[in-house]
Design goal:
Elements lengths: L17 H18 L6 E3 L5 E3 L3 H19 L4 H16 L5 E2 H8 L3 H13 L3 E7 L3 E6 L4 H24 L10 H5 L3
Length: about 190
């Protein structure tokens, strides 16, 4: 398997473990190319050894499959805690509210109190939610600090993957149809 585009592929800066995630990204592309091997032309290297070359379509398919995985790897919250925060956000939007209590969320989600306490503690410490009002005796009301934070992260990751694909399409396009790319990106292809 040969991926001639590997040096042009980048992982979003937001990914928490970029070296490991980059390896997973490249392996996923190779796996997709391997899956499509019977639809591809086999090539031979100087020693006569046969190989299959990764195509742009393989990268596009890997980008689509890995978008959600890279999003989870970019998130500092655990999957369960992120899901809890997303459920709160949806609940607030559905009911056109800006603040919530633990009691109403626990009732709405049918969640165990200990699990909810753990999630609330993590979200407070990570500044995803904040106490808006209330006391310990009467209970607190909370608000989400940045409701669009997850959507922004999602769009950043999608744009980096789309930029990777666009860069590779430009590199593989005939010279006449190429858009202007930085000179160092084009020199590798020529």
């Amino acid at each position: 398997m040969l991926n001639p585009y590997a040096e042009y592929l980048t992982i979003p800066e937001e990914v928490l473990k970029p070296r490991r995630s980059n390896e997973h990204y490249l392996l996923a592309i190779e796996a997709i190319a391997f899956y499509n091997q019977y639809q591809r032309e086999k090539k031979a290297d100087d020693n006569g050894e046969m190989f299959i070359e990764v195509q742009v379509e393989d990268i596009a398919e890997a980008n689509e499959l890995l978008k959600d995985i890279l999003l989870r790897k970019s998130d500092e919250l655990t999957g369960q805690c992120r899901d809890y925060l997303q459920h709160i956000s949806e609940y607030l939007q559905e009911n056109q509210l800006t603040k919530f209590t633990n009691r109403e969320i626990r009732k709405h989600l049918k969640l165990e109190p200990t699990k909810q306490k753990r999630f609330t503690k993590v979200l407070l410490e990570s500044y995803y939610i904040k106490r808006v009002q209330g006391t310990k005796a009467k209970g607190y009301e909370y608000g989400i600090v940045s409701p669009d934070e997850y959507n922004q992260l999602q769009s950043k990751i999608a744009s980096v993957l789309a930029a990777n694909l666009e860069k590779i399409k430009q590199l593989t396009a005939p010279k006449e149809t190429r858009k202007k790319l930085p000179q160092n990106a084009l020199s590798a292809v020529q």
